[in-house]
Amino acid sequence: MTTTDRLEDTYVAALQHNLVDIPTEATLVGVVRRPTSWFRTTVDENYPALGPPADLLDECKQRHEDFKMQGLCDEGAHNAAWDEVGFEDRYRSHLTDTADAQEAVIELVERLRSGEHLVLVCFENTDQKRCHRTLLKEYLTRQL
Predict the structure, then answer these.
(1) Sign of dihedral through CA atoms 37, 43, 44, 49?
(2) Residue 125 pLDDT
(3) DSSP reduced 3-state for 11
(4) Among 62, 69, 119, 124, which lies 20 to 30 A Cα-Cα from 112?
(5) What is the 8-class DSSP label of residue 47?
(6) pLDDT tens digit string along 80-129?
(7) What pLDDT, on the 0 to 100 scale, is given for residue 126?
(8) Gap between the Cα atoms of 115 and 4, Å rounded
């Protein structure tokens, strides 16, 4: 198994409802800025620094609500808000420019290199909505 094969991602509801097959040795790593209590009980640990910055989350959530009020479905509103606020570029900048995020990335990369199997977890079902954890997974893979 290669280092990148030991890095996966999923969403919390998939874990809670056994919709994904996760190896028993894998560590479930939350990457959520504002974890709920039920999220914390589902994952093994959480790295809030790898969640999107609070201002980006708030702005995206507000635009999401605005788009829903204009008649878009939940997924459509989410994805339209994502585009409008420049989510991808801003999140990538967060990973490269924020000390806490940089430290967390270095730690996860070291853990992957040492052979640990990690599964990144957040709230979004990426079959329907775009999500920061897929950007994080790509970023970690490039660091390896």
Answers:
(1) negative
(2) 87
(3) strand
(4) 124
(5) -
(6) 999 999 999 999 999 999 999 999 999 999 999 999 999 999 998 888 88
(7) 81
(8) 10
Q: Which helix (H) or strand (E) holds 140?
A: helix 132-143
Rounded to whole angstroms, the Cα distance separating 5 from 112 reads 10
Given phi > 0 = left and psi -120 to 50 = alpha, else beta, which region is 86?
Answer: left
> Average of pLDDT values for 30-51?
96
The 8-class DSSP code of residue 72 comes to -
- Which segments of 1-144 are extended strands (E)? 7-11, 27-30, 45-46, 118-122
57: nearest Cα among 124, 141, 138, 140 = 124
pLDDT range class, residue 7, cuts 50, 70, 90:
very high
Q: Are 50 and 140 in contact (CB under 8 A)?
A: no
At 18 the pLDDT is 94
Q: Please, are residues 77 and 60 in contact by the beta-carbon 8 Å criterion? A: no
Rounded-to-integer distance, Cα 68 and Cα 70, Å: 5
Q: Helix 87-97 to helix 54-69 angle, to the nearest 10 degrees?
A: 170
